[in-house]
Amino acid sequence: MHLTRRLCAPLSHFTRMKSLGLFAALTVLAAHSAALRASDVPAVALSSGGSMPLVGLGTWQVTGDRELEQALDAALEAGYRHIDTATIYNNEHLIGKVLKRWLSEGKVKREDLFISTKLPVYAMRAADVPDLLNQSLSRLQLDYVDMYLIHMPFGVNRESYNGVSIVAIGPNDTDPSTDHRAIWDAMVAEKEAGRARALGVSNFNESQIERLVKHSAVPPANLQVELHLFHQQKPLVEFCKKNSITVTAFSPIGSPGSKWLIKLSGKELPDLLNVPEVLEIAKKHRKTAAQVLLRHILQKGIAVIPKSSTPARVRQNIDILDFSLDDEDVASLDSLDKGIDGKLFIMKNIGGSVNHPEYPWTKLQNEATS
Questions:
Q1: Please, which residues bridge with residue 82 across strands?
Q2: Any bridge partners for residue 150, and if so which?
Q3: Cβ of 71: how many Cβ atoms within 10 Å?
Q4: What is d(CA 321, CA 40) in angstroms, rounded to the nearest whole number?
Q5: Are 247 and 297 in contact (CB under 8 A)?
Q6: Quick check: 222 and 196 in contact, CB under 8 A?
Q7: At CA 55, angle to CA 51 and CA 60, rounded to 5?
Q8: Rounded Cα gap, residues 302 and 321, in angstroms
Q9: Which residue from 120, 114, 139, 136 is spatially nearest to 56, judged by alpha carbons?
């Protein structure tokens, strides 16, 4: 599989380069046009077949009709073809409306899109999988999704979800009966039925992923996980590489707009956009701090799905294909990793999940109970 990217250059040419990561060799595509073409966005091969664009649009916390419509229009016009959502984001119907318009007007082909959504935390039972996926497909107005992921490794009682916010789920609403193998078998059945082209997991740890790899002839093709400058997930990424699992980073610039996270995690949000090393590298390459943070992840062959509802920022977040960080830049940024201490989304307050047998972050669980 080849990863392609755009470079500004006097003449068009192709140059072979070393692997950018995960299964691929990088081909550099020179282009005169300032407008990014969708085909210029690097894509990574999936073990289940097909490929996934390495730059996508995250849509978490974007639920206003006009706000999301403007963001999606800007994204599709800028060359995005990877759109990430989830049942629990409460915006699948809005995304479906925009996609239907673009498809019906012939501005994009379905086979060129990569749409992912997720099984919600309140539906972590095998019997829920076909119903919840069909609901997602109906809202998205699609016959299939390109990736269907298990959103969380733990489960909460379905009746506890208020339909608005998972943060409002009470502390005693954990459903300890979560059975990953049974849920995964139901997911595989949906893939075989053609309603999901690829399957993945989100927020899972190594042992939980390994359990599925050993259990099924159809292992996860993707792990979507919090990954940014202060929480680089190096051991987990290496584990995924060894098991031919692609990685997608959510909150790749540290989720600066999520002030409510302070209440959920008990942590102050880091200001990754003003880290001195990041600003220095941004000045060197004449890029923004956000573009440097995204490029740092992308160069490792990890997909990024930055969320923004501002059209200008949406366009800016994909404008990371015309420069590369050198070895010195990468070493400087790599050194800022804080491991588990840099994690923002600890999710202890979702239905008392910290006490769930499948709560994925053992160190944080021990800290909570000590």
A1: 56, 114
A2: 119, 201
A3: 25
A4: 8
A5: no
A6: no
A7: 110
A8: 14
A9: 114
DSSP conformation class of 217: S
- DSSP letters of 149-196? EE--SS-B-GGG--SS-GGGS-TT-B-TT--HHHHHHHHHHHHHTTSB
The predicted-structure confidence for 183-240, as pLDDT tens digits, reads as follows 999 999 999 999 999 999 999 999 999 999 999 999 999 999 999 999 999 999 999 9
Domains of the chain with CATH codes: 50-354 (3.20.20.100)
Q: Give, as one character, the DSSP assignment of residue 55.
A: B
Write down the pLDDT at residue 263. 56
3 state SS of 226: strand
Identity at 73, one-letter amino acid code: D
What's the CA gap between 23 and 97, in Å, rounded? Answer: 34
pTM of the model: 0.88
- Residues 265, 252, 213, 184: is their CA dihedral positive or negative? positive
Residue 191 structure tokens: 């893939």
Higher pLDDT, 222 or 266: 222
Cα gap 297→55, rounded to integer Å = 10
Write out the catalytic residue numbers: 89
Query: What's the Cα-to-Cα distance from 122 to each of 126, 153, 170, rounded to whole Å?
Result: 12, 11, 12
For residues 198 and 146, the answer to whether their CB atoms sit within 8 Å is yes
CA angle 22, 47, 205 (to 5 degrees): 70
HSE of 251, CA atoms in CB hemisphere, 13 A: 26
Instruction: Give per-residue pLDDT as tens, 91-128.
Output: 999 999 999 999 999 999 999 999 999 999 999 999 99
Alpha-helical runs (H) found in the chain: 65-78, 92-104, 129-140, 180-192, 206-215, 234-242, 261-265, 276-285, 289-298, 311-318, 327-334, 362-369
Q: Above 90 in pLDDT, residue 52?
A: yes
